[in-house]
Write a structure and sequence with these properties.
- The protein is α+β, with helices and mostly antiparallel strands.
- It folds into five domains: 8-127, HPT domain (Four Helix Bundle (Hemerythrin (Met), subunit A), Up-down Bundle); 140-266 and 278-285, 2-Layer Sandwich (Alpha-Beta Plaits), CATH 3.30.70.1110; 317-379, Helix Hairpins, CATH 1.10.287; 381-561, Heat Shock Protein 90 (2-Layer Sandwich), CATH 3.30.565.10; 566-697, CheA-289, Domain 4 (OB fold (Dihydrolipoamide Acetyltransferase, E2P)), CATH 2.40.50.
- It contains 22 helices and 25 strands.
- Strands 17-21-22-20-19-18 form a six-stranded mixed sheet. The chain has a five-stranded antiparallel sheet with strand order 3-4-2-5-7, sandwiched between helices. The chain has a five-stranded mixed sheet with strand order 9-11-12-14-13, covered by helices on one side.
- Helix 13 (388-399) runs parallel beside helix 14.
- It is flat and about 100 Å long.
- The N and C termini lie far apart (69 Å).
- Mean pLDDT is 78; it is low at 1-5, 129-146 and 253-309.
């Protein structure tokens, strides 16, 4: 039997755990300056300690060295020997950047080759020279084999196993300096399971995972190989100080004392053991990070609750495939429900009634399945939010501004496809709020405001949408300045600008290349930020709204769909053809009198609550080739839709109702069709086109 372990199988686990710990470190470190509580310092210290242990176990010595120095600084902070200052916070955040680069390097090349000596010296400068504490010499003879407590049911289970083949008990003693005890325990358990069956672990799996034991643990097992062969394998496990293996004998009481001769893995038990660096030891001397699962006791007391892993990692492509299959089910569910309804209306029969009940049950089950798959694709928006505190902090320091940044509603969930698109728009709005919105502390003081400005990022559910608000208490946006700039850019004439309301004028900030900045900086001024916001929101079919008050502040409101795969749609009919308008884009529906429609530069418009809204006659946009008849009706149905900051009214013949629809792409068969984003199958089996509000407005 080979004692070697292939480290490649643990690399993904290490990287996953490293990214999780880095996220914790960044979130908590950013809050450290405002709230250096002992609890927060303990969380940061624990994350750094975990990262140090796993990187050392994997042989990444640069990462281990840097996190060790972070530990020294954090230890003095939590002990009150150091006070948190901006330079210390900056250094810790620089450590996180370096660790992030190291993690990226490990993912690409499998090595953490990244220069960090200067940063290490900076950290050492904060704490001064700290002499290494010598390890206390401890020979193998001083390691006592503990008395293992077994329950009656465990005794009975081991006794039953022994009736089939010998049961062995092994007591394993780790080096007192072992950085990650569970990693070594996991390696020993893995070696046993490769050549036999692990029966009972003392302590149990949960305690092993949480490292809730000193430096000794006991395993009861059966094996298909010889004990000498197992001993050879165990001697390849790094930081395993000594171990004993003996055949287990059933006892009258619950105590088992396996005090037999010890087999020492060190060369000389009379001297202090030397722990070789993991990178220099054999592959068996390395181990998986703590994210790996420990072997479970196979024959423990069934009355004891055995907590299995509560989560599994699933490839995103599998979730996408499941979503597609559920989409097909939703289509068939709608079709079956329609057929059942038609049969019930035409016939009165017990079989038809039974069919109707079955159809209803299938509809409920399909809806539940759809909801569960949708939830499986959901991610909390805090996965996006968590990157912003660092950005705001660094930018505020660069601009010389004092800001209090708070986030609310991070637990609000969105579909993964929406999460991937929303990050950049939020980042650009935050940068604009900090750069253009908030004043310098001296300016705020002169204006009678607190020197520290406030930016809030809020997420919340609203019906079938999520609303994200970014608010600041800065200088607000000057509509007159926007007008002047729009005239200079030739976007509008002076006469037209005078007729625009302040609300309409503000929409110019979303124009490509539009900027009011006096000069271009590395932060802003090139006029591309808000244009990116608009284009990304258009991809999602989202809506953006802007409220501002000069001298008081600004609020951006983004309304987004929860998912892009299965949507709620408003069914409308035009010339006998049913179309679907995504409900996420619908603002309101109106019944307007044709006499209220006006024409401005050959464009039909209506005025709604003081705002001029252009109209699009859908039958003209989707011409079927038939000669169109002019509508003679006085009242027209208008669906007001929103695209980012724009509002447009779609004139249709009638409103059919709302329905959940599955979006099917037409690109594969028809190429890009202007004004159409896809198609869906209705309950009657007919195909309905889904309007692309983006291209219609364009």
């Amino acid at each position: 039997m080979s004692a070697e372990l292939d480290m490649r199988q643990y690399l993904d686990l290490f990287l996953q755990e490293a990214e999780e710990q880095l996220e914790v470190l960044e979130q908590e470190t950013l809050k450290l300056e405002q709230d250096p509580s002992s609890e927060r310092l303990q969380v940061i210290f624990r994350a750094a300690h975990t990262l140090k242990g796993s990187s050392r176990a994997m042989g990444f010595q640069n990462m281990a060295e840097l996190t060790h120095e972070m530990e020294n600084v954090l230890d003095q902070l939590r002990n009150g020997e150091l006070a948190i200052t901006t330079p210390i916070a900056d250094a810790l955040l620089e450590c996180l950047d370096t660790l992030t680069h190291m993690t990226a390097g490990i993912r690409e090349s499998g090595a953490d080759a990244y220069e960090c000596k200067a940063l290490v010296l900076t950290l050492q400068g904060f704490v001064g020279e700290i002499p290494a504490t010598p390890a206390t010499p401890q020979t193998a003879q001083t390691l006592q084999v503990p008395v293992v407590q077994l329950s009656d049911s465990e005794q009975a289970a081991l006794g039953a196993a022994k009736s089939q083949s010998p049961v062995y008990v092994g007591t394993f003693n780790l080096d007192p300096e072992c950085a990650m005890k569970f990693v070594r325990a996991f390696m020993v358990c893995s070696l046993i399971e490769e050549q036999g069956e692990l029966l009972v672990t003392v302590p149990n799996r949960e305690a092993l995972e949480e490292e809730e034991f000193d430096h000794s643990f006991t395993l009861f097992f059966q094996t298909k190989t010889t004990i000498p062969a197992l001993e050879v394998a165990f001697k390849g496990v790094s930081e395993l100080r000594s171990f004993t293996i003996t055949e287990w004998e059933s006892q009258d009481g619950p105590e088992v004392n396996s005090a037999e001769q010890e087999s020492n893995s060190g060369e000389d038990s009379s001297t202090e053991p030397v722990v070789a660096p993991v990178a220099e030891s054999s592959p068996a001397a390395t181990a998986a990070p703590a994210a790996a699962q420990a072997p479970t006791a196979a024959k423990q007391d069934p009355s004891k609750k055995q907590d299995a892993g509560q989560t599994v990692r699933v490839d995103v492509s599998r979730l996408d495939n499941l979503m597609n299959l559920v989409g097909e089910l939703v289509i068939d569910r709608t079709r079956i429900a329609q057929i059942g309804h038609d049969l019930s209306a035409r016939y009165e029969d017990a079989t038809i009634d039974a069919l109707g009940e079955t159809v209803s049950h299938i509809a409920r089950i399909t809806s539940d399945l759809q909801d569960q798959i949708m939830k499986a694709r959901m991610m909390p928006i805090e996965t996006v939010f968590n990157r912003f505190p660092r950005v705001v902090r660094d930018l505020a320091q660069k601009l010389g501004k004092d800001v209090k940044f708070e986030m609310f509603g991070g637990e609000t969930e969105l579909d993964r496809s929406v999460i991937e698109v929303i990050s950049d728009p939020l980042l650009h709005i935050l940068r604009n709020s900090l750069d253009h919105g908030l004043e310098l502390p001296s300016e705020r003081t002169e204006a009678g405001k607190p020197a520290q400005g406030t930016i809030n990022l809020i997420a919340k559910h609203q019906e079938n949408h999520i609303v994200i608000e970014i608010t600041d208490d800065g200088r607000g946006i000057d509509a007159d300045r926007i007008r002047r700039k729009a005239i200079e850019r030739g976007l509008v004439t002076a006469e037209q600008a005078e007729r625009l309301t302040d609300k309409e004028t503000l929409n110019f900030i979303f124009s490509s290349g539009f900027s009011t900045a006096a000069e271009v900086s590395e932060v802003s001024g090139r006029g591309v930020g808000m244009d990116i916001v608009r284009s990304n929101l258009q991809k999602l079919g989202g809506i953006i709204d802007l409220d501002t008050e000069k001298g008081k502040g600004t609020k951006f409101s983004l309304r987004l769909p929860l998912t892009l795969a299965i949507i709620r749609g408003l069914l409308v009919k035009v010339e006998g053809v049913v179309y679907v308008v995504p409900l996420g884009s619908v603002i309101e529906t109106l019944l307007v009198n044709s006499s209220t429609i006006q024409t401005v530069k050959k464009q039909e418009v209506i005025v709604i609550r003081g705002m001029t809204t252009p109209l699009i006659r859908v039958k003209a946009a989707f011409s079927t080739g038939k000669k169109q008849k002019e509508s003679t009706e006085d009242d027209l149905y208008v669906v007001i839709v929103g695209l980012a900051e724009q509002r447009v009214g779609l004139v249709v013949d009638s409103l059919v109702g709302e329905q959940e629809v599955v979006i099917k792409s037409l690109n594969r068969y028809c190429g890009d069709v202007k004004g159409v984003s896809g198609a869906t199958i209705l309950g009657d089996g007919n195909v309905a086109l889904i309007m692309d509000v983006n291209s219609l407005v364009a």
